[in-house]
Amino acid sequence: MSHILVVDDDEDITTLLTQYLARFGFTAHAAGDGPALRAQLAAHPIDLIVLDIMLPGTDGLTLARELRQRTQVPIIMLTARANPYDCVLGLEMGADDYMAKPFEPRELVARIQSVLRRLGTRAAPPPGVVRFDGWALHRLERHLVSPRGVVVPLSNAEFRLLWTFLGMPRRVCSRDQLMEQARGRAMDALERSIDLLVSRLRHKLSDDPRDPSIIKTVRGAGYVFNAQDVQGYAGGPA
Question: Which residues are annotated with the PTM 4-aspartylphosphate (predicted)?
Fold first, then answer.
């Protein structure tokens, strides 16, 4: 069952669309602005975003650009403007499709189904490569490639910890759980500190330690690996 996130500040529209999408077997979620969008992405495995251009605070075009820096989740832009420039700009920002308001809900369903079908035919990551939110982890070489194409080397302990996180995205992992899963024979006393390893891994992922977005701390519980789009993870030992 695909999860669809409808982002529009008009509650009548989000209520109508979420109820309508449910009739076609989708699990629909709603958000009215950028912060609510981010909260929904953190809480649910969203498969597609329906994103209005005109939003309070950060507009939809800016949000689309920010999303593309972190994830490949497909986006359908909604615009009430007649200017075709907005549609072109939305596509340039990374949207997969667009619709002009007003529109028939059934047409939106058809667009969603079409985009999801196209997504399903995209090539999977090569064997041994796991992609998440624009990053690529190469299992054999044990290094990362950033969204800008920069190769980031990893220590054995950092690789094992990241591999463990990739197997449990968006789930709270205790320190003991991470230690058990990520433990390796060559880990020395210094590397056995999960907190230190998390700090090092955040640095490699360019994750702001003051306000991390990829590896989040859950006070009293552990950590959450907040990747929204993990592709190519096949499990197994690191």
Answer: 52
